[in-house]
Structure formats: C-alpha cells, structure tokens
Amino acid sequence: MAGRSWPGARSSRCCTTKVATRAAKVRAYAKVNLSLKVLGRRADGFHELRTVFQTIGLHDTIEFEFTPGRGSDIVLEDALAIDDNLVTRAARLFCEERRARGRLRMKLTKRVPMGGGLGGGSSDAAAVLLALPALTGRSTDLGTLTKLAAALGSDVPFFLVGGAALGLGRG
Hints:
Layout (H helix, E strand, L loop, with lengths): L12 H4 L5 E20 L5 E22 L3 E7 L7 H13 L3 E8 L10 H17 L5 H11 L3 H4 L4 E7 L1
Parallel strand pairs: 3-4
Antiparallel strand pairs: 1-2, 2-4, 2-5
Helix pairs in contact: 2-3, 2-4, 3-4
C-alpha cells in the first residue's frame, strides 16, 4: 500500500467521486418600448397591444452555481427579497419541466429599476431559462424555452432572443 489509511476505513471509487459544481454569470438586459399602442381591453383581463421592443445596455446580473443531486433545492440571494420572484419561479418551472435535480444557488444583482416598464423581472426570468440548460445538462430547444417563458409572463419570450421586435397581442 503506497499511502497510509485511517484504521478501519474503506475506500471505493464510486464513493469518493466528487460531483462537479457548474457556475455561470449572465446579464439580463432591459428593454424599452420604442412605440406602444394599447388597442383595448381583452375578455381575459389583459390589454391588446402593439409595440416595438428594443433591448438596451442596462442590465441585471445573475450568478449561478448548480450541483447535480437527487433532490431539488433552489436558493436566491436577492437584496430586494421579493416573495415569489420571477427568478425563482423560472428556475422552479425549468427544473420541474426538464426533471433537473440538484442544488441551484443564484445571486441577483438588480440594476434595472422595478416598475419602470423596462422588463427587468421578465428579462431576469428569461436569463434563468437560457442559463439552466447548460448548467443542468438538460438540452432544451428554443420552442420549449419559449413555452416556459410564456407561462411566466407576456414579454418573457421576447427576452430569450432580445434585439428589436414587434410585439402584438396580450400585454
């Protein structure tokens, strides 16, 4: 035996394998409405809108650490401590739908002001949906991400691709 071992200790490769934690830091860009027309109220309580969105340089930052495991544990460090934050809702939705298991730790640094129509929460949710496939090893196509995004909010799907876009429909 090359090294010394503890008395009575046993070693097995499968028991000493460490699970790698994956980490990432992403930006969640804000948007402005270059044009916005409210065309009327819909039967579902939303408004019928026509708008032109454009992402801008202002952004929030989200840091992620994901360690695969048997259970699910999602933790958000956020100075605002908003109950049912879109960040945690997006993470929960993705992990449930894609059966991703493990410990997910996120740190949100807000720069996009809340309530200003800049889409800060929606952008944060989209950033989570874009980061988690790589972090969890659960490859997910854009169509599936778009369906998940739409379940979180009307403009979340826009933030999956960003840039400039014409927005029509529910808002």
